[in-house]
Amino acid sequence: MNAPYGLDVIESCLDCRLRTGFCDFSPETLRALDTISHQQTYPPAATLFMEGQTARSAFVLCSGRVKLTTMSREGKIFILKIATPGEVLGLSAAISEVPYEATAVTSSPCRVNSIRREQLQQFLNKHGEAGLGAAKSISTEYQYACEEIQEILMAPSSVGKIAKLLLSWTTQHGANDRELRIRSLLTHEEIAQMIGSSRETVTRVLSELKRKELIRLEGSTLIIRDRSGLEDLTY
Q1: How many other C-beta atoms lie within 10 A of the C-beta of residue 34?
Q2: 10-to-15, 63, 113, 164 alpha-carbon distances in Å
C-alpha cells in the first residue's frame, strides 16, 4: 500500500526498515520515539521550515530528499547540503532553542516525522542512546560543513569546484571503474547554488567537461567517464 506521491505507508517507527543515522535505536527507544513523532508526507518544493523562524520542531527525514539553503544579505541563495533519509533536520536549533539556521525545502516527495521541541528535549534527556545519537548527528553535520568548505568552496576555480562536487557524489564502491553513474543530478542552477557560482558558469564548465570526454549525460544520469581526469582538475 502506498501513501500520497507513491511513498510507502509506514505505520510505526518499529515497522520502518531505515536503521541509519538518527534512527539507529533499540526497539524500546524507537517505541518511545514513535509516541512523540507525527508522520507527514510532502510533495516536491514544500517548505518544512525557514531560516530565522523560531525552531518549534525537528524533522526526521524518512524518505526522499530535502534541500537545505541559506541566503546572503544580497539575496543570493546557497545550498548547504542535500539531506537524505535517516538525517534529522533542525535538530541543533530545536535543542538550543534558537531560530533555524537554514531553510529546508523538499527536492522530491518526502515522508517526514516531526517532533515538537519540548517532547524532543524530554526524549533526549530520558534515553541516553538518543542523546548520543543527537550528538553524533550534530557532529556529522559540522564535519560535513567543514569538508564542504575545504574541499569544494575553497577550490581555486569554478572547474575545480564542479569537479570536486561531482566526485563527492560518487562512492568508494566502484571507485576503480572507468565509468561511474550519478543519478538524480541537480539542475545547473542548484549546482551553482552549491558552489557559489552562476548557472551560466556551470553550464559552460559541464559542456567543457563533456567536450573533453570526462563526463557524459544519459537523461538525468551523469556518467563520470574518467575519474582520474576529473581529479586532476581539482588541484
Answers
A1: 16
A2: 6, 11, 11, 37
Q: Cite the DSSP H helix spans in the chain.
A: 27-36, 91-96, 117-126, 128-148, 158-168, 188-195, 199-211, 227-232
Closest CA to 111 of 35, 48, 183: 48
pLDDT band at 15 (very low <50, low <70, confident <90, very high): confident
Of the chain, the percentage scoring pLDDT greater than 90 comes to 49
Count of C-beta atoms within a 10 Å radius of residue 12? 13
Q: What structural domains does the chain harbor? A: 4-151 (2.60.120.10), 158-232 (1.10.10.10)
CB atoms within 10 A of CB 169: 15
Half-sphere exposure in the Cβ direction for 158 (13 Å, CA): 17
pTM of the model as a whole: 0.80
Residue whose C-alpha is closest to residue 202's, from 144, 138, 159: 159
C-alpha cell at 107: 527536492
Residues 63, 72: Cα–Cα separation, whole Å: 29
Show the CA angle centred on residue 47, arms to residues 162 and 119, nearest 5°.
Answer: 115
Measure the CA dihedral 17/23/27/33, to 10°. Answer: -120
- C-alpha cell, 96: 538550543
- Separation of alpha carbons 146 and 153, rounded Å: 10
Give the distance, in angstroms, between the CA of residue 28 and the centroid of all CA atoms in the same chain: 28
